[in-house]
Structure formats: C-alpha cells, structure tokens
UniProtKB/TrEMBL annotation:
SUPFAM superfamilies: P-loop containing nucleoside triphosphate hydrolases. Keywords: ATP-binding, Nucleotide-binding, Transport. InterPro entries: AAA+_ATPase, ABC_transporter-like_ATP-bd, ABC_transporter-like_CS, ABC_transpr_LolD-like, MacB-like_ATP-bd, P-loop_NTPase. The keyword tRNA processing does not apply. This is ABC transporter ATP-binding protein. Signal peptide: none annotated. One of its GO terms (molecular function) is ATP binding. Residues 64-300 form the ABC transporter domain.
Length: 305
C-alpha cells in the first residue's frame, strides 16, 4: 500500500470551498473518503449519488479513465503493465483476478491513493498527473468512497457516529451529519442498530455500516476491495445485494474480487492477470442471484436518473 498521496486536502482547482483540514482516505487509515467541501454533494439526502454538478468538476461521461497505466514497485515488481480501463457513470463492475494479479494495486491507482509509474489516470474528469498530492487528496475525498474487506470502523463509537465520520469535513453541523448518517444507515437496513458499536455488530452489519459511511458523502465512485471477503456467504450476499441496489439508484461501483462467482453476478467483469487486463466482459447480470431479503430500502435517488 502506498500512502504517499494522502496528505491533507486543500482546495481543488475549481473548489475554493474545500475544507483546509482535509482528510486522508488511505487504505491504512479508516479506508473511506469524505466530502471535504460541503459543495454539491452536501445538498439532498444521502445517496444523492454521482451526478450533481459539484463545483470541482462537471459530470464527465466516464468516472474512471486509465490509459497505458503501469505500476512498478521498488524492487522491480511490475504490478500493473499497460492497463487501459474506462468506467462509465452508473456502471457496476467486477475487477477479478487471482492473488497477486494486481487488483489492489489497481484499486489504489483508481482511488488516487497511489500514482502510476507511467500512463494516465483521469478521475471524474481530472487528470491526476496535473494535481498536487494535496489537491489529489481533496479530489479523492470529494469523489471516491472506499470499502475494504476489514471494514475499518472506528471502535468504541456508534454505528451512527461511524457513518457521520464520512461527513466530518463536509462543513455540515454535527446534528446534520448525524441525521444524514441515520438516513444512510436506514438505507442499508440498519435503522435498528444506530447506537450499536462495532463490536456489537455482526460482520455483515459492520460491512453495511462501512458502506453507509462510504456513500453518505455521495461520491461519484464507490471502490470496494474484497467487500465480502471477511463474511459468511449469507452476509456476503446481503452486501452484494446492497451494492446492486445502490447501483440501480445510480451509484458507480467497482468491486475488486478474486471470486469468480461474485464477479459473475455483476454486469461487467474486467479480468486481470499478471498486471494486465486479459478480458473485459460486459453482459447482463444473471437475475435473482446475489440478492437477499431484508436489505435495501427505497430512498436513494440519483441526480441523473
Ligand atoms: N508495496 C509493494 N511493494 C512491492 N511489491 C508490491 C507492493 N504491493 C504489492 N506488490 C506486489 O505487486 C503484485 C500485485 O499485488 P496486489 O496487492 O495488487 O495483488 P492482488 O491482486 O490485490 O492480490 P490479492 O488477491 O492477494 O489481494 C504482487 O506481486 C505483490 O507482491
Ligand atoms: Mg488485494
């Protein structure tokens, strides 16, 4: 993992309102991003996904555009070798491949947690090569939500406060952050677990809290690295069902997985092997799979559809 780009956020190029304190959303940290600005994302209910003109960027057709991306780690490991990848708004895709194939490296590059050795990375219309690390941090905080296998919840505070952390740098008053957190928790089916602390939640519930935290700031892109990896199959299905529901409501979601069955449930599979994209299959998702009762409530609406 790299945390070389996770310094505090400062105002982005077209985002003068960005919180100067910033927030580093790094995989070694809490693993989520927040809206640092209280800009476009701050209006509306949680889940007002991806699409509001936000002052940082317009709404480019592709949320992610990678061209010829390579990543070499010190010691000579070429973890990515010439990756081209475009992700359109409102896509739901799997990035699938065996252990060591470069999936997490790719997630870090797409998530702007790390920069490529060569090639170009454009996120929400911004060429990251043109941004300083601090501006990159602001972009990340505003546009990207992260979910990780190991949840990264803050121990000792309630589910509601964990989710409200996702709005910490939004400029919103605490009461409003907590109100939106409550809406987001209701959205993921945990209205009755608001006051529970992480150790009082099941694994699947923890991951749903983490998802609520990742989406409460209404990011353009949700990146999930093995989100079901620590869960039993029923909890994993519930989490995947939730991701499907969020996508139906307009969220752009990339799920990193080594599990071909999980990948097969998603409409598009980008297959990666030895640092290269070896297949990119987009097809209609099989119906009736990966869904579980009791997850998902109506309520999140996209600005664009
Ligand atoms: N910080 C690092 N320094 C050196 N090599 C690294 C570093 N991080 C990853 N690698 C190497 O890069 C390659 C890709 O690693 P990556 O973590 O992206 O794989 P992955 O597909 O996510 O695997 P897994 O499914 O096991 O999580 C591996 O060979 C790994 O050993
Ligand atoms: Mg990995």
């Amino acid at each position: 993992m790299s945390s070389g780009t996770t310094d505090g956020a400062v105002p982005g190029p077209a985002d003068p309102g960005t919180c100067p304190t910033g927030h580093a959303a790094g995989p070694a940290g809490t693993g989520y991003a927040v809206d640092p600005a209280g800009t476009g994302h701050a209006g509306g209910l949680p889940g007002h996904f991806a699409g509001a003109s936000d002052g940082f960027t317009g709404a480019p057709e592709h949320v992610v555009e990678l061209a010829g991306v390579t990543k070499e780690y010190p010691g000579g490991v070429a973890a990515l070798r010439g990756v081209d990848l475009r992700v359109a708004r409102a896509e739901l895709l799997a990035i699938v491949g065996p252990s060591g194939s470069g999936k997490s490296t790719l997630l870090h590059i797409i998530g702007t947690l790390d920069r490529p050795t060569a090639g170009s990375v454009t996120i929400a219309g911004h060429d990251i090569a043109t941004l300083t690390d601090r501006r990159l941090s602001a972009l990340r905080a505003q546009h990207i939500g992260f979910v990780f296998q190991s949840f990264h919840l803050v121990p000792g505070i309630s589910a509601q406060d964990n989710v409200a952390e996702g709005l910490l740098y939004s400029g919103l008053p605490r009461a409003e952050r907590r109100r939106r957190a409550a809406v987001a928790l209701d959205r993921v089916g945990l209205a009755d677990r608001m006051a529970h602390r992480p150790h009082e939640l099941s694994g699947g519930q923890k991951q749903r809290v983490a998802i609520a935290r990742a989406v409460v700031g209404e990011p353009d892109l949700l990146l999930a690295d093995e989100p079901t990896g620590a869960l039993d199959s029923a909890s994993g299905e519930a989490v995947m069902a939730l991701l499907h529901d969020l996508n139906k409501e307009g969220a752009t979601i990339a799920v990193i997985t080594h599990d071909s069955e999980i990948a097969a449930e998603l409409p598009r599979q980008v297959r990666i092997r030895d640092g290269q994209v070896v297949a990119d299959e987009g097809r209609a998702a099989p119906t009736g799979k990966g869904r579980a009762p009791g997850t998902g409530h109506p309520g999140i609406r996209s600005a664009e559809r």
